[in-house]
Amino acid sequence: MEKSRIEYLLKKIEEQTSNAGEEQEKILENILKRNAETDYLNKFLHGQTDKQLFKKYVPVVTYEDIKSYIDRIVDGEPPNILTTETITEFILSSGTSGGEPKYVLSTADCSQKRASIPMLMEAVMHKHIEGLDKGKGMYLLFSNPDFDTPSGLKARMFSSSYLSSPTFKTTLFKTVTTPIEIILSLNKPQSMYCQLLIGLIRRHEVLRIGTIFASTFPNCIKFLQDHWKDICSDIRTGHLSDWITEPDCRTPMLSFLLEPNSELADLLEPIFKNESWEGIITKLWPKAKYIDAIVTGSMSQYIGLIDYYSGRLPIISTFYNSSEACFGINMEPLNKPWDVSYTFLPNMAYFEFIPVDKESPQKAQKLHFNGVSNEESIEKLENGSAQIVDLVDVKMGQFYEVVVTTLAGLYRYRVGDILKVTGFHNKSPKFQFVERQNVALSIDRDKTSEADLSKAIKAAEIELEPHGFLLTAYSSFADTWSIPGRYILFWELKLRDSNTDRLKLDSNTMEQCCRRVEESLDFTYRLYRKMNLIGPLEIRVVKFGAFDELMNFFVSRGAAPLQYKTPCCLKIKEAIEILDSRVVGKFFSNGNLA
């Protein structure tokens, strides 16, 4: 990226965040001016565009409240039910509604804003890390098939929409090692093979390694473990493996495998043959400066794994987006993964915030506004039981649930994310992602959130370190058939200094891990354990690769591989059975909690 372009983009960020209040006012004014006559808004505002009337009469809603409107548009009715903008596609959210994917309306304005975020973040990265213009990024990116809808428009995952955008194809694509045809190939194994092969051929150009979600990294490492011999053979002979048959993959590879390169193959093979793969990323790509991946929320469980394989390269979560809206960017990218905060960009959408109980973020669930009953919504707002604040009025250190209004037909929509205010960049707040608004585990009256469970497991990982174990993935479920009910965790472990999947598990260590988890959970859980209303926590260690099979199961049900997030809590019987059938050890928390 040219220096003048970097300076322009950074100046743009400063201008927007310095005038956060004014930017928000303009965004809402524009949305109301253009969409006030839509069926949905007209029902509440009767054509008025006043901000105070909007806040007073338009209810705060969830997806279920507006699903019927969206379904009508998906089925082919005119979009002016919700927006006067032209709908270009539907974005499929990684969340679900009744087991079905959520459809989010997308417009040209949405696409432009989605594309601008990586460009802005690119400028921020150039500011903090020198020399990025001297090489490229090896980004492991994968597309997914589109789906036809009765409206005639396509429905696609957020990642596929981004990779197909003109901005990526014409601008950002130039910063990555892989040809666009390979990235857009729908054959994921062949695409991954070619992306890794090109990355190794161009290893001295690679200055950063990334993907969208951190969960992709363990899959790529496993893929390398299974295919490194073929990759080295291809490099040595200058001939692409015969099993790569997809034209979108095979044809572009001809320009990279021009001749045999036994010297490179000889260099790589000893690295792959090493008993320990700790730090292998920096050995394969010695000039890599950082890892780029989302490691906030449920993705935080992969931080230790990435540290292990990368030799503790900096891990940078660059921006905060969702299918519903773009939120912000990480203006301090070199902070530790656990300290990541995102500066909200006030020109992306109109943002509001529901205050959340500081001690118990899940209490925000009580603030459910029913979009069907407008009178009930008004009553809750007017009697002060649900005070909603604007972007510039949030308070330092407080917790909030974010609510968005967009030009594409979302009005006071609860995204479901709980955030904490950690500071301000000029007049725009910085937020730390706390958790997605849901309860991971629940037995009787105890409700354990994803954030609380993640924190407790991180505390227990300390017990593994002296024994050389690395926790590579976890999930859980509430065993409500036992009396009393109990929480069961599935853990996938590996030895730090070996690639063998044969583990000798020490019962005392694993039982101590169980106890550490329990001691780190909240007061309610510990109280119920003392009262024997909840049974002893159990950890079930599964074979290495079990979570790959879990991912395959969810992908077979329609999940996008690139957007797949390992569920923190399993509720589908078949998913639990997949992990249960691969258990190699069971361990329980012994004794009573203090």
From TrEMBL:
Domain GH3 middle: 342-436
GO cellular component labels: cytoplasm
Limits of the GH3 C-terminal domain: 452-571
Annotated TM spans: none
Lipid metabolism among keywords: no
Keywords from the UniProt entry: Ligase
Gene Ontology MF terms: acid-amino acid ligase activity
Pfam families in the cross-refs: GH3, GH3_C, GH3_M
Similarity comment: Belongs to the IAA-amido conjugating enzyme family.
Record-given protein name: Indole-3-acetic acid-amido synthetase GH3.17-like
